[in-house]
Design goal:
It contains 20 helices and 6 strands. With 415 residues, the chain is mainly alpha-helical. The protein folds into 2 domains: 2-281, no CATH class; 289-409, no CATH class. Strands 3-4-6-5 form a 4-stranded mixed sheet. A two-stranded antiparallel sheet has the order 1-2. The protein is globular and about 80 Å long. It starts with a helix and ends in a 6-residue tail after the last strand.
Length: 415
């Protein structure tokens, strides 16, 4: 939020309020602040890069800023591939000045390759499978509807039972607002949009288009859209407001228009804040505090715990182990995707030798197994042999109301 405000502060109060306000209350941005998803981090580094790359409305003249901005964009890409979208847009905008484009591209390459190359060099095939093919190929993945995507990207994800007409109107209102203010500001000023404005609008449009393409879509994806949607809304509107001030002044409402526009932006932000607060009051933890407390009593500190839901062991302070040989696997589903590639436990991931080997090792060294209801059927690469080993070597200790179950190895005794 602070970086968004720094990026647009030269445009005045309205731009800062809209940008910071949207980043503060946009549902996906709020939701991902208490998760371990990557979107908030890649958005953070993209905004930091934009602050370095842009000086006011145009690309910076400083070579140092361009290079380090490119490096920061590249590092964002090392976190998650979504960063390629703002990178493509900013390099495209820099092409009329080839030296700037080259500095940016060089910085991006360095920022991406330096942290990534060691992993790619150590295991090139696994790197390709885990980072690329496993992300592009997901067997039997059900396609998420257009309406769900539009609802989440339009910021209506906190509302339930929203009609398709409402979603369509909200999406059209956002697109229409950007298009009208962009065109009107250019007509009034008789100048095309400046570079920063194009960056926000084009990146937001590209992100939306890309989010509509793959079969899968998750609630945390729009957190990456948030900063660019904020720029696309704030920058054309602030430019139009500034350009219309002389006309407004002649009518005696020059200064008032600024405060009216800012007040409306604050009002809209407040409405979204109330909606977000109301939705959060109904949230309940996936694992109740009583279940976490019970798990802490059952599982001793430092024990080797295998789980398909790492947040369980993190919440219970049983994430780390002091047991020699304990598996380091913390994401069985990601392991399935990376080693199969693209298959999960429900689609024969366990039949892949690499998946079968790593699962067998993990279960073979575990002292406790904490499984999340029926979700584990998709996350664990179960095979008949692995199931037989598990049933022969582990017994149930406790199960909570959600079906989450803790098992202990035969011969061990819970505290």
């Amino acid at each position: 939020m602070v970086l968004g405000g720094l990026l647009v502060r030269h445009r005045g109060l309205l731009a800062v309020i809209v940008t910071c306000g949207l980043l503060a209350v946009y549902p996906a941005s709020v939701t991902t602040t208490y998760t371990i998803f990557l979107e908030p981090w890649v958005a953070l580094f993209c905004l930091a890069a934009a602050v370095m790359v842009f000086h006011g409305d145009r690309l910076a003249d400083s070579r140092r800023r361009l290079v380090w901005g490119g490096v920061t964009f590249g590092f964002a890409g090392a976190i998650e591939s979504w960063a390629i979208m703002p990178v493509l847009v900013v390099v495209l905008l820099a092409l009329p000045k080839p030296k700037k484009a080259a500095l940016l591209a060089g910085g991006v390459a360095a920022g991406f390759l330096i942290p990534v190359l060691p992993f790619a060099a150590l295991a090139p095939q696994r790197f390709y499978q885990g980072v690329f093919s496993a992300q592009l190929v997901r067997y039997h993945q059900v396609r998420v509807s257009v309406w769900t995507r539009l609802q989440d990207m339009a910021g209506l994800g906190v509302l339930h039972h929203v009609s398709h007409a409402t979603i369509a109107l909200a999406a059209l209102a956002l697109v229409g607002f950007v298009a009208v203010t962009l065109a009107a500001a250019s007509l009034v000023t008789r100048r095309p949009p400046p570079t920063l404005e194009w960056f926000g609008v084009l990146t937001a449009a590209l992100v939306v288009a890309v989010f509509m393409w793959p079969p899968g879509f998750f609630f945390h994806f729009p957190a990456f859209l948030a900063p660019f949607l904020a720029l696309a809304l704030a920058l054309p509107a602030s430019r139009l407001l500034t350009a219309s001030q002389p006309s407004a002044a002649r009518l005696g409402i020059g200064e008032a228009t600024r405060w009216i526009a800012a007040g409306l932006a604050v009002l809209v932000t407040a409405v979204f804040a109330v909606l977000q607060a109301r939705s959060e009051t109904t949230l309940t933890p996936r694992v109740p505090p009583a279940a976490i407390a019970a798990a802490r009593r059952v599982i001793p500190p430092g024990a080797c715990v295998l789980t398909d839901q790492s947040s369980f062991t993190i919440a219970a302070n049983r994430f780390t182990s002091t047991v020699p040989g304990c598996s380091l696997m913390i994401d069985p589903l990601g392991t399935d995707y990376a080693l199969s590639p693209g298959r999960d436990g429900l689609h024969n991931a366990g039949a892949v030798p690499a998946v079968a080997a790593i699962m067998r090792y993990a279960f073979g060294h575990a002292q406790y197994v904490w499984l999340a209801g029926t979700y584990n059927l998709r996350r664990i690469g179960w095979t008949p042999a692995l199931r037989a080993y598990f049933d022969s070597n582990f017994v149930k200790v406790r199960q909570d109301s959600k079906g989450d179950t803790i098992y202990i190895r035969n011969g061990l005794h819970p505290r």
